[in-house]
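User: My instructor asked us to take a sequence, write out its structure as tokens, and then describe one feature of it. I'm not sure where to start. Here is the sequence I was given:
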Amino acid sequence: MRNKRDIIVYASDLTKNAPTLIDYSDLLPFNDQLADLKGKEIDIILETPGGYAEVVEDLVNLVRDKYEKVGIIIPGYAKNAGTIFAMAGDEILMGPMSALGPIDAQILSNGKRFSADAFLEGLEKIKREVEETSRLNPAYIPILQTISPGEIQHCENAQNFSKVLVTKWLAKYKFKYWERHKSTDKPVTEEDKQLRANEIATELCKHSRWLTHGKSLKISDLNNLRLIITDYSKIEELNEAITRYYTLLRMTFDGSNIYKLFETISAQIYRFVNVQVIGQKRDLNEKNIAKIEFECPKCKTKHNIQVNIGKSKPLQKGFLPFPENNNIFKCTNCGHESDLTTIRLQIESEIGKKIVK
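Assistant: Let's start with the prediction itself. The structure tokens for your sequence are:
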């Protein structure tokens, strides 16, 4: 039963101008939240525009070292590296509004971002043209003069890295319980799993098939790749729970300056735009206390702030009280004043109680 599974949420607000991509700074808070969970199976609710595949590999290893069964739930969007993350699940759950995306690696060179697959295909096209005509079109010369062998190798490596991860994870996890071919009823071999996984990874990497890196791949697109997706909208109780949570998640993002969150049933870590809050997590031992690690946006000094919820508590050692005077926090190092009103409203809304002295 899914209600007996652990749940962790990794979500970014795709609409905010903020560092919403999956990056190395996510490893610590993700692992912190994961460490509090004690079950044997887990569902991961994922919402992300993408990011670094190398970080996704580390995140997946953290999950897979701890859990035998993993479900990846995509209520909205999980693009690029988020799609790679989804391929590490034993089960991928999506609804009518959900979308994954192509995984062709994006390369930044000379201030320009482009698809590694499209770049390599372009070079291959030039090569074929030269072979067919025995001459090089002069229009290509200025372009080729700016390209180094190292750049070509970098594109090949980046593209192969995504493909290798997806192939490995699909064969090992997604196809773990695939035992017989539907059409022939013959047993599924490890070679069959590797072949199917490689075919899917190759198509997901193919820029020429999707034409744009931002393409939204829906359930039907993925089924056409022979990647079986669970449509949670057809499971009434599950659909209601996921839809309700996703609505609250979107309301949280839309009504605050939070741009990224790591959440379990008992704890949350938030990242905020502007005010530089590094983390806010409920203390599991003191249910009337929330603790905030706050970084001064001017001098970068970090402060631990204690938030008393519902009733007063003695100030813990090493902590400062949440500011009562117009929610203005004054840095103890440089005196810079930061307005924590949005943080107060978010905490009170999330917990359903007022902050007190």
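For the description part of your assignment, you could build on this observation: Residues 305 and 320 are 5 Å apart (CA to CA). Try explaining in your own words what that tells you about the chain.
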